[in-house]
Amino acid sequence: MIKDSVFAALELANERRAERRRFLKLAGAGAAAAGGLGLLSACGNDDDDSPTPTPSPTPTPSTSGVATDVGILQLALNLEYLEAQFYSIAAFGRRLPDASLTGAVGTRGDVTGGRQVTFTDPVIASYAREIAGDEIAHVTALRAVLTAAGSTLVIAQPAINIDGGATGAFTAAARAAGLVDKTSGTFDPYESDQNFLLAAFLFEDVGVSAYKGASPLITSATYLEAAAGILAAEAYHAGLIRTELFSRGETARAAANAIATARDSLDGSATLDAGIANSDGTANLVPADSNAIAYSRSSAQVHNIAYLRTTAGIGGGFFPAGTNNSIEALRTSGATA
After folding, report:
1. Other Cβ atoms closer than 10 A to 179
2. Is residue 259 domain-resident?
3. Is the pLDDT of residue 141 over 70?
4. One-character DSSP codes across 9-47
5. What is the pTM for the complete model shown?
6. Helix, strand, or coil here: 124?
7. Which helix (H) or strand (E) holds 160?
8. What is residue 100's DSSP assignment?
9. What is the mean pLDDT of residues 69-94?
């Protein structure tokens, strides 16, 4: 089984080699030309939720923020570490190699929890393997971009909790969403095909809104193209997961809608998320504003969800000790106590 998993991982890597080569070529050119990276503002919500579609304005970054292009890529790498470890373990039963987890920024952390899913549907198993290959490639690509900008800019993998037990981050998320009893219930994402899809749904929509929120704040056209490419891949994943869950009927739809509501309660917006089914039972496979533009989340809002907390601070949930960033402000939850 392990041998087959290794061959499957290698096959996926080969299929994406051409894409990664193009990514790294662009990243290297951008690093050579960048010189110094300008300061940008922290990500903000630029969506218009008015009921009548209107032209969407072009976001104008403020000059008062502290986020840089490198800082944004470091934050993205934190999220990719989380997703890649979850999918790799669920699909192949193996963690990322140690060589892909080192870095000069932050403290290297371990992964808590996770096991290979015994899929009953070969189609879902195929989805899991493909997405795992994509997320592993994203980690490799972002690490290469940061290395090209300066070897001391690569972040180490932070401590990650993807456990489905009583003290696991997935159980805490499920309790917050009301999927299980809020004091004694547990949620194991590795127990069934549907649990795996719900866990994937929790991650993928956050990734899309995080990259969307960061995109107008990146000054380098090369880095912007790279980030846009990853955003598009994450959006494909999210659309696939949302569609599959909707096709599974009322129970799956209700659970996904509850997760979406919980994410909004954590990020403090109540407007940046949407379930997979409308109140009349029709599909809502593309969460977007009145202009059909995907929602944006700021770095603080992303951390609120990843940390599973509504109070200000660093760490918790899927990142027990916080994320690793060279800019301290990018590690902090934006919620207020």
Report:
1. 21
2. yes
3. yes
4. HHHHHHHTHHHHHHHHHHHHHHHHHHSSPPPBPPP----
5. 0.81
6. helix
7. strand 160-161
8. G
9. 96
Give the number of C-alpha atoms closer than 13 A to the C-alpha of residue 317, restricted to the C-beta side: 27
Q: Given pLDDT bands bounded at 50, 70 and 90, which one contains residue 335?
A: low
What is the spatial distance between Cα 124 and Cα 132, in angstroms, rounded to a whole number? 12
Average pLDDT over residues 53-70: 45
Domain holding 274, by residue range, is: 2-30+73-309
Measured in degrees and rounded to the nearest 5, phi and psi for residue 294 equal: -60, 150
**pLDDT(31) > 70:** no
Question: Is residue 40 a part of any domain in this protein?
Answer: no
Are 92 and 5 in contact by the 8 Å Cβ rule? The answer is yes
| Residue 95 CB contacts under 8 Å (≥ 6 apart), including other chains | 85, 88, 89, 111, 114
Range in 9-18, 24-33, 141-150, 191-200 the model is least confident about: 24-33
The separation between CA 319 and the C-alpha centre of its own chain, rounded to angstroms, equals: 12
Contact 165, 335 (CB under 8 A): no
Structural domains in the chain (count): 1
Token duo for residue 256: 């996904």
Domain membership of residue 141 (yes or no) is yes
- Reported as a pLDDT band with limits 50, 70 and 90, residue 328 is confident
Q: Do the domain assignments include residue 163?
A: yes
Closest of 231, 233, 232, 260 to residue 245, by C-alpha? 260
Q: Which has the closest alpha carbon to 176: 301, 336, 308?
A: 308
Q: Which distant-in-sequence residues (6+ apart) come within 8 Å of 105 by Cβ?
A: 74, 152, 153, 154, 155, 156, 324, 325, 326
Extract long-range pairs of 14-21: CB within 8 Å, 24+ residues apart: 15/133, 16/133, 16/134, 16/137, 19/137, 20/137, 20/140, 20/141
Q: What is the DSSP letter of 153?
A: G
